[in-house]
């Protein structure tokens, strides 16, 4: 049986099964399996019992529009305030590269919504109900922080971004 005949074969099996006819399997002289609706007269054949097909309900139709904001529990689309409050945009962190990202959100986070945090396009936390994320040992340089509010199916409701500059202290002992 070739790849081209496989779909035809499957259609025939399905049609035969739906018509409640028996399917028989035999092996030809070249060792290939042969399926027919009648037992072979010149070769041993055995009836084939097909397992019942598994049917699944179709998934719910969820609109995929990213342009319309999902209403909050107060009925307004999106959140009135959604921003990264710490570290402030274009601010500099001067320490060992550790800081806490905090978002301000008004009204409060909707029950079905979660927050995700990204640094330089890489997901670092979430989706979670907590409005903050602790960053440890961040490399020196300028980094883009993004926070997203997502609904229960992962659809992005609202996004905010902030830039932070990390300066790490380097201690070099004096030369002997």
UniProtKB/TrEMBL annotation:
Residues 18-63 form the DUF4124 domain. Keywords: Signal. Residues 47-56 have a biased composition (Low complexity). Pfam families: Big_7 (PF17957), DUF4124 (PF13511). Residues 1-19 form the signal peptide. The keyword RNA-binding does not apply. InterPro entries: DUF4124 (IPR025392), Ig-like_fold (IPR013783). The keyword Signal applies. It comes from the Bacteria. Residues 35-83 are annotated as: Disordered. This is DUF4124 domain-containing protein. It comes from Endozoicomonas gorgoniicola.
């Amino acid at each position: 049986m070739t790849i081209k005949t496989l779909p035809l074969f499957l259609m025939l099996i399905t049609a035969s099964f739906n018509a409640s006819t028996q399917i028989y399997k035999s092996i030809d002289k070249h060792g290939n399996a042969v399926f027919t609706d009648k037992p072979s007269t010149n070769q041993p054949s055995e009836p084939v019992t097909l397992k019942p097909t598994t049917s699944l309900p179709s998934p719910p139709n969820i609109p995929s529009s990213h342009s319309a904001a999902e209403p909050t529990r107060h009925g307004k689309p999106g959140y009135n305030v959604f921003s990264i409050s710490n570290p402030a945009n274009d601010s500099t962190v001067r320490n060992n590269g550790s800081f806490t990202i905090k978002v301000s959100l008004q009204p409060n986070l909707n029950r079905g919504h979660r927050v995700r945090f990204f640094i330089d396009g890489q997901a670092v936390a979430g989706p979670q109900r907590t409005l903050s994320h602790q960053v440890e040992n961040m490399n020196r340089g300028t980094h883009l922080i993004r926070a997203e509010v997502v609904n229960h199916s992962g659809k992005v409701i609202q996004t905010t971004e902030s830039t932070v500059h990390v300066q790490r202290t380097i201690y070099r002992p004096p030369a002997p």
